[in-house]
Here is the input.
Amino acid sequence: MRALVPLDGSTTALAIMPAVRRLVEMAPGIEVHLVTVLDPGAVRGRAEHPVREPLGAAVGTAAIRIPAPRLIESHGEAIARKSTEWREKLEDIAKTELPGTAATIHVEWSHHTAKAIIELANELDVDVIALGTHGRSGLSHLLAGSVAEEVIRDSGRPVLVVRAKSQ
Here is the structure.
């Protein structure tokens, strides 16, 4: 048996972990795959900003030049850094939430979270996708949408959904 557990670092996403622990208890030997999906458009390289000294009073026609920031990390390097950071976060979650269970870690890059989850589920041929949701309704649901709802609707696989408790 294989389970795919999408996580985004939020307490909402982590609400699924007690149910995943129960799955592990019920099905010893289950393969647990933890995944996060990151948007490559949301990642920026780092720039070094020059020290800005007080301009003081400009006298006459003197021009004050402020050097432009210098790029010290490219977009590709930023993506590699984020991948490493998220891999470490997911490994920590696995150690904390699923002690004694060997979890496989995946970091996926996509502009469309639900689609990436479904594609990975198909690639791994998982038996269940387990995820947390805000459980929004009404206007907030219409505006924010729901990754969980899209996964349920489009995956064609069993989906275990746990609604996070209201804070």
Observations:
- The chain has six helices and seven strands.
- The chain has one domain: 2-45+74-163.
- Confidence is low (pLDDT under 50) at residues 139-144.
- The beta strands are 2-6, 31-38, 47-48, 70-71, 103-109, 128-133, 159-163.
